[in-house]
Amino acid sequence: MALKVGVVGVNGIGKTHSGCYASDPLAKLVAVCDVVKQRADETAEKHKVKAYYRLKDMLDAHPDLDIVDVSTGGNENGGWHFEPAMEALNAGKHVLVEKPISNDINEARQMTALADAKDLYLGCNLNHYFTEVATKAKALMNDGRIGEQIFCLHRMGFVGGEFTYGGADTGPNVAGFPYFHVKAFLAHPFSIMRYFCGDITHVQAFMSRPSFRKKAGDVMVSINSIHVRFANGSIGYLFSQRGDATMGLGGWWSIEVGGTKGTFCIENCVEKLTFTSAPGAPGAADPSKLILGKSNEPEITNTGLTDFGLTFPTRIHAFLEDVTNNVPRHKLRASGRDALATLEYTFAAIESFEQDGIIVRPHPLPQLKRNPKTT
User: Which residue range forms the structural domain that includes residue 261?
Assistant: First the structure.
């Protein structure tokens, strides 16, 4: 039976989420909610569902809702996630929340704690690894073709530069918040790095903004250079920027993970996967016959896809699958705990930057709880 879903917040990303549920066979979109009446009415009319302007009214009218999708915005794009998510969890509903899980670390900790206490699913739209190329890359790791992990390099940033800069953003969610980019953006790169390499134990960050932002009085800290260490002993580097430059190799989004047996690189998130075996690996070149500076011929998967938007229905379908199949909560994909991890790393990076690049250990994650009946 299809899961009954209500969406809260239908300005922009909430419209995308609503469309995903409306077209997914595992879901039945029954209601949408927004504090702005016109938004709620327009989205409700499009999908032929009920419109509400307070979450309480939607919950009261639909006590049989299975899932509440929280796609509200707020300060730093996460400032309005806490209240509706907590209200929905307290009403006994599973919740999928947009990223970042919150712009406040204490709120994020409370959200995950309440979901644990209520034994409910709390997921987050960490959609960057719900792709064909990420699945293939993960299979390479699981098959032992990467070997012991040595490094992880991730770059992510909008295409841009000083010619495309239009001045400081005056939107109420952005203006006056120097860490808007850091909080609203880093959930994705941290989530994909953790997906491939595991928990991060040490963070060191240097951040800045270009002169054209400074001249415009733009306070956004838009350039982030972050060095990390993973629990498995490998090291990593994350470079993030918000349209301040145009990156070349790998496009706007690339990740490279290298180990003792091989290395993979994903370009443009959904588009291309390249795997290169280490010399001497089965089927690879004889190390003694490789010219200095040369490597083996790579294995290339080119999906032909360029639309990042395809990750939204894929990720939402995965959440619907997990809830439908009643998977053990600790096996929920892109869980609230996973989202909390990205925010812990984000706040560690901010602390490091504010203290002149000191090394910071992120706050420990809550213990991963397993149900003995389903483990």
Answer: 129-305
